[in-house]
C-alpha cells in the first residue's frame, strides 16, 4: 500500500489524499489541511517556501 498522506505547509498536520487542498508555486506543490491555510499561503507564499 502506498502512503499518499502529506503534511500541511502551514501547521504540519497530516493532509489525507481525499481531503487534499494544494497550490502550485514556483514549480512546487504545497498542501493544506484547511481552506484558511490555503488562503494564508496565497497571501504570502514567500513566508512558507
From TrEMBL:
<dbReference type="Pfam" id="PF04945">
    <property type="entry name" value="YHS"/>
</dbReference>
<dbReference type="InterPro" id="IPR012348">
    <property type="entry name" value="RNR-like"/>
</dbReference>
<dbReference type="InterPro" id="IPR011017">
    <property type="entry name" value="TRASH_dom"/>
</dbReference>
<dbReference type="GO" id="GO:0016491">
    <property type="term" value="F:oxidoreductase activity"/>
</dbReference>
<dbReference type="InterPro" id="IPR007029">
    <property type="entry name" value="YHS_dom"/>
</dbReference>
<feature type="domain" description="TRASH">
    <location>
        <begin position="8"/>
        <end position="45"/>
    </location>
</feature>
<protein>
    <submittedName>
        <fullName>YHS domain-containing protein</fullName>
    </submittedName>
</protein>
Amino acid at each position: 500500500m502506498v502512503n499518499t498522506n502529506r503534511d500541511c505547509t502551514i501547521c504540519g498536520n497530516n493532509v489525507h489524499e481525499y481531503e487534499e487542498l494544494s497550490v502550485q508555486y514556483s514549480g512546487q506543490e504545497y498542501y493544506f489541511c484547511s481552506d484558511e491555510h490555503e488562503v494564508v499561503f496565497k497571501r504570502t507564499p514567500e513566508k512558507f517556501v
